[in-house]
Amino acid sequence: MFHIPTPIGFLIIGIYLIPILWFGVSAYNATNASYQQMADIPEVTAPVSSSEKAAIESWISANNLNEFGDPQGTVYTGGTPLVDEATGNKIDKYSYITKKHPDKPWKK
After folding, report:
1. How far is CA 34 from the centre of its chain?
2. Are 66 and 72 in contact (CB under 8 A)?
3. 78 — alpha (psi -120 to 50), left (phi > 0) or beta?
4. Is pTM beyond 0.70 here?
5. φ, ψ for residue 83 (rounded to 5)?
6. Residues contacting 66, CB < 8 A, separation 6+
7. If 0-12 CB within 10 Å is exposed, 13-18 middle and 19+ buried, where does residue 94 land?
8. What does the longest C-alpha to C-alpha distance in the chain come to?
9. SS3 of 16, please?
């Protein structure tokens, strides 16, 4: 019976596994990159009319909220909720407020 020395056996196994592992990692990175690109697509929101903007500003003032419709003293990463620190994407102030308050309390 033929016997392959242990180091040569590991070398043979390595020669077969390296391409499999390499392409597997490459496929993972390509898939992960495509998902990241999808996450970077900004969310499309309907424009807020000027009358709704005025209603939002009145609601903020009447309820003693900060300029973003959150309780006074709210602290944000980066100083503002209008920038996603991870992606750098910016969002309009009124889009942020309408997304955060889907029940639109300024219309009540």
Report:
1. 13
2. yes
3. left
4. no
5. -130, 125
6. 60, 72, 73, 74
7. middle
8. 91
9. helix
